[in-house]
Amino acid sequence: MSFFSREVHTNHNRRVYFTLVRRHFKVFFKNKISVVFALLVPMITLILYVIFLRQLQVSAINSGLKELFSDNPGKITEDVMKGASLLADGWMLSGIVAVSCISVSLNTCTIMITDRLNGVSKDFVSSPISRRSINASYVIFNILATFLICFCVLLVSYLYLGGLGGFHISVGHTFLLIPILLLSVISASLITCFIASFLTNYNTYNSISVIVSSGSGFMIGAFMPISMLPDIAKNIPLFFPGTYSAGLLRTFCLQDYYNNFTQYLESTGQFTHSEIIDITNKLSSTLSMNINFFGTEVTPGFMALAIIVFAVFFIILNILFLDRNLRGKLHGKIKIRKKK
């Protein structure tokens, strides 16, 4: 059997992908610092929200409701304010999960950079495995590892909301959140792997990771509604897949709660139908789940379609550039060593 026939046979063997992905998992989880940092970033964001940002957001919502009923402030009871506060918690935590897909994916990409710096990538290339298979194993690992960690973040968010009490979501919407999370992770991983393919310097990658992780929360409307952004920046989030991920997560996480909160307001008998509409409109404008694409409201189906389009686009880019970037980086290092 010749070398080339052996290479073709190896590339069509599923065990190659399984072995490479398993190797990446072992290397990643062996480095406890990398795992801790991957978990720490979303958890720190969650803790910062609970300790500092939550009270500010809740106060802003309660002030808005009291202003809405300035002629009769007694209608806004503690139960009504608690319900609005729980809605704010669900809105913010859905955004934190969406941001986690990006930040965690950036952390798991470090194994690709480390393998290049340590010369492991050259060992892979010298084996009877195509570069495309090697690159695909990094992307598959990134998707699986990121999904695993983000799923843990989602569970922690659920536990926090459940501990506050009064938060309800249907079983159907709960199970819908899992494929939505997976779709969000796939699009984020394809983007971060594409960015990482151009880099070989660990310091440069860390700098880019910090910038992207800190800025993505505001650019996708995770920490504040897109409507509150300056007019010049309102359309920028429309070109990031994370915006649609946050919109989908909020839609299926909070849709049942909006209905339950409306039913609660009706059951109190203190509010007229028009007043209930005013309250829900006030909350939906402050904690918007909708995305306005140049004047057209984007439905959940089109949000999912937008994420798929972004994912397909970056699949094509990864196919075109990932192999070329790996080959260029390796050849560049060989030339430098020959000159020395």
Blueprint (SSEs and pairs):
Layout: H1 3-11, H2 14-30, H3 32-68, H4 78-108, H5 110-117, H6 120-126, H7 131-164, H8 171-196, H9 202-219, H10 241-268, H11 273-286, E1 291-293, E2 296-298, H12 300-339
Antiparallel strand pairs: 1-2
Helix pairs in contact: 2-7, 3-4, 3-7, 3-11, 4-7, 4-8, 4-9, 4-10, 7-8, 8-10, 8-12, 10-12
Tell me about this structure:
This protein has 340 residues and is mostly helical. The chain has 12 helices and 2 strands; from the N terminus they run αααααααααααββα. It has helices at residues 3-11, 14-30, 32-68, 78-108, 110-117, 120-126, 131-164, 171-196, 202-219, 241-268, 273-286, 300-339; strands at residues 291-293, 296-298.
Query: What is the first-to-last residue Cα distance?
Result: 38 Å
Strand content is under 5%
Could you tell me the mean pLDDT? 80
CA-atom Rg in angstroms: 23 Å
Number of helix segments?
Answer: 12
Beta-strand segment tally: 2
Largest β-sheet summary: 2 strands, antiparallel
Q: What is the N-to-C succession of helices and strands?
A: HHHHHHHHHHHEEH
- Low-pLDDT segments: 1-9, 333-340
Indicate the structural class. mainly alpha
The coarse silhouette is elongated
Query: What is the percent of helical residues?
Result: over 70%
Placed side by side, the strands forming the largest sheet appear as: 1-2
Q: What's a quick, concise take on this entry?
A:
The chain has 340 residues and is mainly α. It has twelve helices and two strands. Helix content is 79%, strand content 2%.
